[in-house]
Amino acid sequence: MSEQHYDYSFTQERELSWLRFNERVMEEARDESVPLFERLKFAAIFTSNLDEFFMIRVGSIYDLTLVKKTHVDSKSGLTPAQQLSAIFEAVGPLYKQRDKLMAQLETRLRTCNICSLALSELDVKERKQCDRYFRDYILPILSPQVVDTLHPFPHLPSKSLNIAVELRRGGETSFGVVPIPRSLPPYLRLSERGVRYILTEQIVQAHVEELFDQYQVVSRAVISVTRNADISPEDEDYDVNDDYRQHMRKVLKKRSRLAPVRLEIQGAASDALVEYLCQRLELTPAQVFHSKSPLVLSYVYALEGLLPEESKAALCYPPFSPKAPAGLIRGEKIIPQLLRHDVLLFYPFHSMDPFLRLVKEAANDPAVLSIKITIYRLASKAKLIEYLAAAAENGKDVTVLMELRARFDEQNNIQWAERLEEAGCTVIYGFEGFKVHSKICLITRRERGHIQQITQVGTGNYNEKTAKLYTDLSLMTANPAIGADAAAFFQNISTANLDGEYRLLLVAPHSLKSRLMALMDGEIAKAKAGQKARVFIKCNSVTDRELIDKLSEASQAGVDITMNIRGICCLRPGVPGKTDRIKVFSIVGRFLEHPRIFVFGTGDDAKVYIGSADFMTRNTEHRVEIACPILDRSIRDQIRHYVEILCSDNVKARIMGSDGHYFHVPDHGEPPVDAQAVFMAEAIAKEPPEGTSAPTPAARKGILSALAQRLRRR
User: Fold this and answer.
1) How far is 299 from 328, CA to CA, in rounded Å?
2) How many domains is the chain partitioned into structurally?
3) CB neighbours of 292 closer than 8 A, spacing ≥ 6?
4) Residue 437 bears catalytic tag
5) pLDDT tens-digit readout, 30-83
6) Which pLDDT tens digit goes with each residue over 74-113?
7) Contact of 535 with 529, CB cutoff 8 Å
8) Interval 265-280: pLDDT, tens
9) Beta strands 426-428; 145-147: pairing state
10) Which of 247, 437, 594, 641 is labelled catalytic?
11) φ, ψ (nearest 5 deg) of residue 406
12) What CATH number does the domain containing 94 carry?
């Protein structure tokens, strides 16, 4: 379909949709029902999200303005320059909202004796402590610089903090920069009474006169430059004699010097200083954003560790530890249980431990011949790596596809790849031009002459840290048909075959999109025949134009479509004649929503899939992704129960209107339902005692019926 034929009447610009999602994150920071310190963390999440948005999305559009100036976006009809203009216009008010919010949060936190202080607020003892700290620990490693003909403007790494100053001497104006070393702690704790602290950048800014003692300091401000981080390894020259890991190291080094796309300023910078910085960084005034809040808020996570236990109880979420899933006998080996029945883990309500135990058992099981796995992101400390290394050292054939191009995790993955190779694992790096984003593990055993295959397919990464923070699904099954497909998949990726055929698995880039569209065609045919037709989609983002058009076609044919989309959704629901029968809602809560679930049909005949792919062109056409059918009836029932609880959420859910903006779920007098809170309560209630196995319960029909009625009313 050519660009000029796109129908923009029911779609919206991708980046503006994402900004509305991030505004929704900030809404959680405003929510009085959220514990106070958790609200501060949501403000930090909003900030880090915006940082990455500028580095990746604004960076990529900036690149388009250089090479494809006439390119037209398929969802909005805008050129790259028009997209940037719309983004900058939309971002400005978000800074003002955050400033107002942070001021309110800081005021409230002070009543709890958690105080972010300015130098002027310190008492005499604290001021002496601050001065001593500056003299003994900060000053020796600072590198202040006056910019002149002999001292060029320094390179400012992306998101580093710096003090920019306007200086005057002898009637002449000059400018200086003081980079704040990243080796310094983000703040200085001032006393043991409560949590009183001052940020490092504020300390340095207060002592600027000492650094430029031959000048008059006219203006000063904290600044941070955001650089384009959208660099593709495939765009760089690759020496065939290089190890691919060495190539990635070169790419990462180059990323640190890419073009600036944003300048943030905290403080009263003079017009002359701002103009000078724009000139040096080659930025327009539209790319300059003024903030009263700190430019980096990641320090708030460290603050949590300083809170007294009694304060934590009042200011933070009640602690929750992942539980053992129903359906597994605790204390019994995992492999024999999986050979008897499938198991579904639901993170973070369930622990990742059963999967880790599976790999550990496999590493030491004499019957296990091989372990094959695709890895996209890992924690900085990963038991999984230890178990895979142990398996190789125990003589198992261990093959790991390590994706070295996982954005911002490249260095971590390089190090893990080296560790695995040292242990004797076969490590491969995927396909040129296609990231491997699938989450699949295959364990092959031979027992009594028979081959057995245990397959794990998930919606999230094998990251032991995020498994406690993100909601995700992980299916473990000994189904032979799924195992055969998994074996074929690993054979194909080992031989660089992207066009493999599979009986059950949907695999991008070859078949996932076409199969999803065929499944929607099936529902369209049912609707046209007067039968009940339904589609449910849960994923993080919807941007693929072909899938969007197919969803619109299904809506017009009479298919009822419900979409739970966490972030970007370029499809606008409820547009007359185009998306009338489509409902879109988003949930932002304590945990990050991350599963991908696709359901086609109704009742027991519904086809249910879980997988790694969003409805994004990058996922469907430019990545290796897997969606797996749920064949076990009890597991299907679990997922259907999960979906219905999600659809019943009227606390954290927001519904998208036809204009692309979100609004609260209308109050019909029903009791409040916070889906994530329900799942926590269910995980606690259903956790089997040690040595026992709780049955996998089907949801009560009365509840499901009520929820279904509520869903239909929406």
Assistant:
1) 40
2) 3
3) 99, 102, 103, 266
4) yes
5) 999 999 999 999 999 999 999 999 999 999 898 888 877 778 999 999 999 999
6) 999 999 999 999 999 999 999 999 999 999 999 999 999 9
7) no
8) 999 999 999 999 999 9
9) unpaired
10) 437
11) -70, 115
12) 3.30.1840.10
